Amino acid sequence: MYVYTLGQWLLFFFLYCFLGWVWESCYVSARQRRWVNRGFLHGPLLPIYGFGAVIILWATLPVRGSLALIFLLGMLAATALEYVVGAAMEKIFKVRYWDYRSQPFQLNGYSVRSSSIAWGFLTILMTDVIHEPIARTVLAVPPVILLICDFVISVLFTADAYESIKAALALGHTLEAMTKLKADIEELQ
Questions:
Q1: What is the C-alpha separation between 131 and 133, in angstroms, rounded?
Q2: What whole-number distance in Å separates Cα of residue 124 and Cα of residue 59?
Q3: Looking at the whole model, is its pTM more than 0.70?
Q4: Contact 151, 88 (CB under 8 A)
C-alpha cells in the first residue's frame, strides 16, 4: 500500500488536472478538426480529472492485486464524480458543460454507460501504467521543493478558479435574464 503525504497528493492532483486537460483538449480538437481549449478554467488544468485521479487512486490502491476490482471501483468512482460534478455545475452556473441525453443508457445526461466503461479501462491504464512513473517522480521531489511547487501552483489555481467561477456565474445570470426576456417577448406577442 502506498502512503503519500498531503503535499504529494496535492501535486498528484495538479499533475492529473494538467494531463486531463491535455487529453481532453487534444481529443476534442482532433474530433472537431480545430483547437479547442477544454475545461472550466482559463489555464491548462481540468480539476475534474485531478479529483477523479485522486479519488480513483484512493479507491484502487488498496486492491492493487485485483484487475477486476480496480476496473469496477475506478468505473464507479469516476462515474459518480462525473454525475455529481455535471449536476452541480448545471445547478450553480445554469450551464450544462456536457450532455449525454442523446445517447442510450445515460443517467439524466450527466453520465453514460459507454463513458463509465471507458473510465474503468482508463483506471487500469492509470493505475498500472501512468501512475507509477508519476509517483516515482513526485516521491523523488525534495520536501522543500514540493512545498514551493504546491504553494505556487495552488495560488495560481485559486486565482484562476476565482476568475473562472466569477465569469461562469455572470454567464449563468446573463443566460437566465435572456431566457426570461424571451419568455416575456413571447408573452407580449
A1: 6
A2: 12
A3: yes
A4: no
pLDDT band of residue 1 (cuts 50, 70, 90) is very low
- Distance from first CA to last CA of the chain, Å, rounded? 67
Question: DSSP labels for 116-164?
Answer: HHHHHHHHHHIIIIIHHHHHHHHHHS-HHHHHHHHHHHHHHHHHHHHHH
Q: What is the pLDDT of residues 46-92, one digit of tens each?
A: 998 999 999 999 999 899 889 999 999 999 999 999 999 999 988 88
The DSSP letter of residue 36 is: -
Query: Cα–Cα distance between 112 and 128 in angstroms, integer?
Result: 24
Of 180, 133, 113, 140, give the one whose Cα is nearest residue 19: 133
- Cα separation of 79 and 77, whole Å? 6
Q: Distance between CA 57 and CA 115 in Å, rounded?
A: 18
Contact 96, 110 (CB under 8 A): no
| Sign (positive or negative) of CA dihedral 36, 111, 169, 175 | positive
Q: Residues 78, 115, 125, 63: is their CA dihedral positive or negative?
A: positive
DSSP alpha helices (H): ranges in the chain? Answer: 6-32, 47-60, 67-93, 113-125, 131-140, 143-188
